[in-house]
Write a structure and sequence with these properties.
Layout: E1 2-5, E2 13-16, E3 22-35, E4 38-52, E5 58-70, E6 73-86, E7 92-105, E8 108-122, E9 127-139
Protein name: Nhs-like protein 2 isoform x1
Keywords: Membrane, Transmembrane, Transmembrane helix
Length: about 140
């Protein structure tokens, strides 16, 4: 059978940006997926982002780490690295990153999910806002 549902995610990030050549954003996401009231998987994602202002183009590198477990047993572990760049052609800028991951156990695809992260910032404020949307599809 196939279950399709949205995962629970509490994502509210409002961090003052350090006014320097380098700034860092670190956030932690936790989510529990359930089907029919039974917890089937748990994962924790740690995102670390950094940026430099040494050129017209800058790079954001994010590191994702997640542990998937079922009934308290860790079944898989994976790490995803994303790189994104932007230009400085407007006052407002937007970063959109998309990644897809397939987790398998014993050669069988057990879960699939796609995450779309949109980040925006204005140059008139010292705060950076993050908006993340999680969509999870689990195949059983």
């Amino acid at each position: 059978m196939s279950y399709k549902y949205l995962s629970m995610l509490d994502n509210h990030l409002n961090i003052p940006v350090i006014i320097s050549m380098y700034w860092t954003i670190t956030s932690t996401y936790q989510a529990i997926m359930s089907t029919y009231g039974i917890i089937t998987s748990f994962y924790r994602v740690i995102i670390s982002t950094y940026r430099t202002t040494t050129s017209t183009y800058w790079t954001i590198t994010s590191t994702y780490q997640a542990i998937m477990s079922r009934y308290g047993i860790i079944i898989s572990f994976y790490r995803v690295i994303i790189s994104t760049y932007r230009t400085t052609t407007s006052t407002y800028w937007t970063i959109t990153s998309t990644y897809q991951a397939i987790t398998s156990t014993y050669g069988i695809i057990t879960s699939f999910y796609r995450v779309i992260i949109t980040t925006y910032r204005t140059t008139t404020s010292k705060y950076l806002a993050n908006t993340s949307k999680y969509r999870t599809i689990t195949l059983t």
